[in-house]
Structures are given as C-alpha cells and as structure tokens.
Write a structure and sequence with these properties.
294 residues; alpha+beta; Alpha-Beta Plaits; 2 domains; four-stranded antiparallel β-sheet; 9 helices; 4 strands
Amino acid sequence: MSLTYSIKEGLAGFSRAKFASIATTGSMAVALVLIGIFILMTYEARSVSDWLRQRVGELELFLDESADDQLGNAIYNRALVTPGIESAEYVSKAEAVQIFKREFGEDGDVFYDEPFLPASVKVRVTPQYANKDSLASLTSYFSAWNRISDVVYNESLLDKVMRNMQALQRIGGWLGLLVVIASIFLVANTIRLSIFGRRLLIRTMKLVGATDSFIRRPFLVEGIMQGLVASILASTVLIILYSLLRGFVPQFGTTSGIDLAALLVIIMLVLGAFLGWSGSFFAVRRFIKDVYLH
C-alpha cells in the first residue's frame, strides 16, 4: 500500500508542479548531454588512438636477397597466423621498386640500388599489441626466423605518439571529472529549489505523524521519473549530434555504429535515474531535518 501510494504521489507531483518539473528535467537533460558528449569524445579518442598506434607500430620484415616469391608468401602466411597480428601484406622486390620510384619520383634513379630494395612482409598488430613492449617482443620473435634479414618499426615515433596520447588522456580525465561535478551540483541545486516550494507540504506530513521514509519516497519516485525523461531527451540530442559529427568526420563510428548508440541510451537512462534519485534523496533529507514542528 505504501509503495503504491509513493508511486501515485510521485507521478502526481511530477505533473502537479509543472514549472518546477520542467526546470529540473531540463537541468538534468543539459547535465546528461554534457556527460554524454564527454563519453562520446572519450570513446572516439580511444578508437583514434588505437588506429594511430597500429599504423605507427607497423612492423616490416625484410627478407634476405636470396628469398624468392614462394618463400616470401610462405613467410607472409606464417606471419598472418601469429598471435597479435591483425593483417599482413607481402611486398615483392618488383613491388618494392615501384614503391621506391613512386615515392622518390623522377629523381629516384639517382638513389636507386636494387640490393637495397629487398622483398618484405608488412604486418599490422592488433590494438592490444600496439605498444612498445609487445612490439619489441614481436621484433625479437620475427628476427629469429630463417631468411629474415631485419625487422624494423618506427620506435621513436611510437614513443612520441604514446606520450602525447597519455597527456591527452590525463587532460581529458580531469575535464571529465569537472563536467561530472558541475552536472551533479547543477542537478542538486535545481531539485533543491523545486522541493523548497513544497516545504510546507513536508511540514504538514510530519505534523500528522508521517515517517521520514514515507515522506521521502514520493519525491524519490518523482526524481527518478524526471531523470528518465531527461535521459530520453539527452539521448535524442546526443544521437542527432553524433550523426551530424559522423557526416563531417567519416572516420567516427566506423567500429561502433548502432551498438554505440544503444549503449549510450542505456548509460543515459541509468545516469538519469541515478541523478534524479540522488538529487531528490539529499534535497528531501535536508528539508526533512530542517522542518520545525513548533
């Protein structure tokens, strides 16, 4: 009976104080949009970071001069099934010459020397292996293979990329924390102002002997409802913004698509319900304590 009453009163309060409910729902929607934007940017930044580290950490296995195409293809197939390798490409001597001429242009003949253009196998690691320790381990592993003369990758550039990414992640973490704290304060203050207008109702209920938990429950239901409505509004805005962003930056969403949108909606619903519940809980708790019966 008590739970049914709390739900009915919570829903009634949601529709009774329309202006206060709209203000509270709007503030929560703004807070959730800010948090959602940060989540989206963090997710995409991590995807870009993985993509960049994969390409910077690409290994190239150079075959010795006596290796023919048959042996090169055999090494390519073996490299392709090595744990941690996402893809591989065999570059024959003829292809190496074409790449050299294409990159150096007409003046490339001055530097052309066929012995310095051996066949090779380019391997790209998975995101989990795109770090200095894993690449060093793979370099040692491939170097021990027969007919492999050298294994190289751009170690200095990888170190620079990883340092820059770590710095950006730290900055992003602090900015995210500030966004969350600001959102919590925004929601808590708005809910407190909303409940302040009904402090006389709280006093009346205490005068007739209602317990603190009985008084609190309808406000918690109302706060959760406001949070859910706000999360739906925020999810709609975020999905629209994300779709527009993907139109300008096609690389975004290439590994997520609708799964990211569905996950974002779930996160927004959970955060919205939590913000509404927590804001209402602490605001009502304060007013219940501050109500004087005499």
